[in-house]
Amino acid sequence: MFGAIARDVIGSVYEHRSIKTTDFPLFHNNSRFTDDTVLTIAIADAILNQTDYAKSLKFFGRKYPDAGYGSTFIEWLFEPESKPYNSWGNGSAMRVSPVGFAFSTAESVLSEAKKSAEVSHNHTEGIKGAQATALAVFLARTGESKENIRKEIHERFGYNLKRTIDDIRPNYRFDVSCQGSVPEAVIAFLDSASYEDAVRKAVSLGGDSDTLACIAGGISQAFYKKIPTEIVMEVRKRLPQEFWEIIDKFNTKYMVS
């Protein structure tokens, strides 16, 4: 899941300052973790401690209230009751990568991804986006080829994955929906030659760059296995100690490299 978090940090400065190139500095003084990271940590902690997903999301979200959540999610975060609000937003997909690393069958991954999404994002597209992302992570970490991943995600979820990043980039705009960002993030991974190349391609689409990069990042870590040391070091400097403790526990328990 660190692959998703690192991508969030890298993409954070471009979220509202779109670029249409892969040639950009990976880190700036203002690079930071956002809601993508906080909620990914929340899902990982819920899995580690076998706690309710909504409870964990609310605990971490309230602890880091200025991470950049959407307005409707903010309302959900501080409501006494945890009623879902029929969202199709990509928040369900950006936080789900730990599910793809932690569970051992495609069926269990799909089931847990649904559970992690529907506490807030119970719209069909919100659930589908989370399931597609988590399944792509699972398939990548269990050794499936890119073509098999493309085929499986397309057949299960109907996403158009025949496009390339170069096809998408010119006309792509800010889109916070699962249906308008999950396929594009998956394609950024499919078109990539390395972990870093995947993040550059995702950010180069413009739009919701940190979330695109976050979704692509979890899949890319699962497939390429290693994240460059310099990226790990830069991200480490920008995360609270408690996040690292959760990441380390998660990686140890689920043997994530």
Q: Strand share of the residues?
A: under 5%
**CATH top level label:** Mainly Alpha
* Secondary-structure class: mainly alpha
CATH architecture: Orthogonal Bundle
Which percent range fits the helix content?
55-70%
Total strands: the figure is: 0
Shape: globular
Order of helices and strands: HHHHHHHHHHHHHHH
- End-to-end separation in angstroms reads 10 Å
Descriptive overview:
The protein has 257 residues and is an all-alpha fold. It has one domain (2-253): Orthogonal Bundle (ADP-ribosylglycohydrolase fold), CATH 1.10.4080. The protein is 61% helix and 0% strand. The longest helix has 18 residues, at 124-141. It is globular.
Offer a concise description of the structure.
This protein has 15 helices and no strands.
Give structural attributes:
257 residues; mainly alpha; ADP-ribosylglycohydrolase fold; 15 helices
What is the secondary structure topology, with strand pairs?
Layout: H1 2-11, H2 35-49, H3 53-63, H4 71-78, H5 91-94, H6 97-102, H7 106-118, H8 124-141, H9 146-157, H10 165-168, H11 182-190, H12 195-203, H13 209-224, H14 229-236, H15 241-253
Helix pairs in contact: 1-13, 2-3, 2-15, 3-4, 7-8, 8-9, 8-13, 11-12, 11-13, 12-13
